[in-house]
Amino acid sequence: MDLLLVLIVILLIVLILRGPKTLPEIGRMFGRGVREARLEASKLGSHEETKDDEGRPAS
């Protein structure tokens, strides 16, 4: 519950400082960042699965 309140306060501060026209742009940048993080995490996970305990490729 406290996290939600903090996020709302941050959103209001950004709205006041940047104005309502820039919010969609900020949302797009945030979405791209999350998408890239998920992509890199999935690449890292699939890369780890293809190696054995000593770091050699699994056969």
Describe this structure in words.
There is one protein chain. Helix content is 75%, strand content 0%. The chain is an all-alpha fold. The termini are far apart. The model has no long low-confidence stretch (mean pLDDT 82).
Write out key terms for the chains shown.
59 residues; mainly alpha
Name the shape in a single word: elongated
Give the class from helix and strand content and strand pairing: mainly alpha
Q: Biggest sheet, open or closed, and with what strands and sense?
A: none
Instruction: Spell out the helices and strands N to C.
Output: HH
What's the total helix number?
2
Overall mean confidence score, pLDDT: 82
Question: What percent strand?
Answer: under 5%
Uncertain ranges: none
Question: What's the Cα radius of gyration?
Answer: 19 Å
CA(first)-CA(last) distance: 48 Å
**What's the total count of β strands?**
0
Work out the helicity level.
over 70%
Please write out the topology:
Layout: H1 2-18, H2 23-49
Structure at a glance:
The protein is an all-alpha fold and 59 residues long. It is 75% helix and 0% strand.
